[in-house]
Amino acid sequence: MSTLEYESLDEGEALSLSEASAITSAVRCRIVVAGGPAKSGKTTLFAELFQRFLAGPVGEFEFAGSRTLRGWERRLHLSRTASQGMQPDTDRTEYESPDEYLHLRLADMASNGDQTDLLLLDWAGERFREIRDRPSLATDALELGSVDHISVIVDGAALAQSGGRHAARADADRLMQALLDSGAARDCRSSVVYTKWDHVANVGEATLESFLRTFEGTFRSKHEARLQSLSFLKTCARSEFPTALEAGMGLPELLREWMIPRKRPVLVREMDRPAALRPFDRFRIGAR
Amino acid sequence: MSSKVVAVGLVGSGKSTFLAALWHVVCEGDVPGALRLTASGADQTRLNELTEKWLKGEELDRTFLDDEAFPVINVHPDQRPLESSEFVIPDLSGESFRRALSERAWSRELDSYVRASSGVLIFLHPDSVKPDATVAQGMELAAEIEPDSIATHQGGERIPWDYETASCQVKLVDLLQLLAGRMSNQPRVCLVISAWDLIADQDLTPGNWLDTHAPLLSQFLRHQRTAVRVFGVSAQGGRLPQDIDRLTSLDRPSERIKVIEGATQSHDITAPVRWLLSDEP
């Protein structure tokens, strides 16, 4: 090519709010927030979901495109030998990172290949900790009515240790309480997602049976009435104990949950809103 | 017919051998039903040099491919010389596309080729889609070979992320999305799996091979709202240098070429371009 003039192309990185907004106008969209402590496995959960599509469909869903291919690949780097790491890892999402949405366009093969966009908010654990401690922050951060599904992450590695499991349980409970009290999660579909379940399997699931039964019962009785749905899912995105569980366990089930539409009330006032302000356009407007 | 087809692919994806064989077939006119060359008066020196190397069974070195852009080829269907179309491989080495993916920019000249095209011919070399090796797999393998190695190996410094190391499937999806984003209409897409002779013994159709070995790309193509076809093409007809005598001793060099779509096989290397220029579903 002889010319020195260049045309810029789409970056392919994780999306800012305004970039993500543009996507939602094209086809149906699900917005998912997965909240939990730092290093509890949120980004790994997202990254390994994409990794699964590299090997084939995930459950009934097939890959139909992504605006954030570089963003996905960047998050998978430390899990690959190209990084020369000695342990599978995922770069921590920085607290100061701007809002970053990872995007997938998925075709539902159980529904004639209908396509839906999935936007996953990749936030640092510290920001969820702030919301847990100061619920009013959630009102600014998560615009009401925008999020379809909220997953509260419970770190299986913490559950596997007797010294860590009560803190992990309490953290999930407080975060959901804060999200509901602020109105951010009200009437959302939701799930409690146990990550790193291979750690639990490694110490023996039976040792946690009673603990989890109590936790899930209490969690339901406290929060379920204010949610459209509540499920509990065990996942193992990557297995540190290969003999215990297969990597990727629970991801198809989790994806299926995320893709179920939230029932939205039809409001007459919506008709007065300018066309540009679709629900997702209002997502986190004015925050930070 | 006034359509234009742009051919793209990453470094080493088989574009140059395809072009050499295609130029031979359109000039020679000895494959029934194949596209024919439309006289244009354009400089054909580079194309003739390329095809000369192909006919002699010589491998194409990188310097030759990097040298300069190749001209547009004007072709028309057999017996219909007035229905001329354009076929262009704007960057034979694939370097422009490698840089486009890494640096998220390409030249205005390439952009204008893309914008003017209604069809995309994209190349995939079978060796380029090996599964990404994960650290977990590496650790398992190391533990099997030398159980003490995990405990004693300290590991080096981690290498920073670079898109160059990304999965080939991801890069091709990325490239197709970038191309479609610059075109006014969703382009017809034809994927050519090059060096098909290397994998022909797997007894799979090109579409089945793609499903098995490049599932992300296969899923992506299946869900585009446009016509898509997958061909397996052996433009060289064998391995070099070991097969050189067999390849160069044929009476008709066009018979070196194998083009597979579904269960059918031919020597018509123009078939993928011909389909892109047609309105067949």
Characterize the structure shown:
Chain A is of the alpha/beta class. In chain A, 34% of the residues lie in helices and 18% in strands. A seven-stranded mixed sheet of chain A has the order 3-4-5-2-6-7-8, with helices on both faces. Chain A starts with 5 loop residues before the first strand and ends in a 29-residue tail after the last helix. In chain B, a hairpin with a 2-residue loop joins strand 9 and strand 10. Chain B has one domain: Rossmann fold (3-Layer(aba) Sandwich). Chain B is an alpha/beta fold and 281 residues long. At the A-B interface, strand 1, helix 2, strand 3 and helix 3 of A face strand 5, helix 5, helix 6, helix 8 and helix 10 of B.
Helices and strands, with pairings:
The complex is a heterodimer of chains A (about 290) and B (about 280).
Chain A: E1 6-8, H1 17-24, E2 28-35, H2 42-55, E3 61-65, H3 69-76, E4 101-108, E5 114-121, H4 125-133, H5 136-141, E6 149-155, H6 156-159, H7 165-181, E7 189-195, H8 197-203, H9 209-223, E8 229-234, H10 251-259
Chain B: E1 4-9, H1 15-28, E2 36-37, H2 45-56, H3 62-66, E3 73-76, E4 85-88, H4 95-103, E5 105-107, H5 108-115, E6 119-124, H6 135-145, H7 149-152, H8 168-182, E7 188-193, H9 206-213, H10 215-222, E8 228-234, H11 244-248, E9 258-261, E10 264-266, H12 271-277
Parallel strand pairs in B: 1-4, 1-6, 6-7, 7-8
Antiparallel strand pairs in B: 2-3, 3-4, 8-9, 9-10
Silhouette of chain B: globular
Unreliable stretches of chain A (pLDDT < 50, length at least 5) are 268-288
Proportion of helical residues of chain A: 25-40%
Strand line-up across the major sheet of chain A: 3-4-5-2-6-7-8
Largest interface: A-B, 50 and 50 residues
Largest sheet: spatial strand order of chain B: 2-3-4-1-6-7-8-9-10
- For the report, how would you describe the main beta sheet of chain B? 9 strands, mixed
Class from helix and strand fractions of chain B: alpha/beta
Average pLDDT score of chain B: 88
Mean pLDDT of chain A: 83
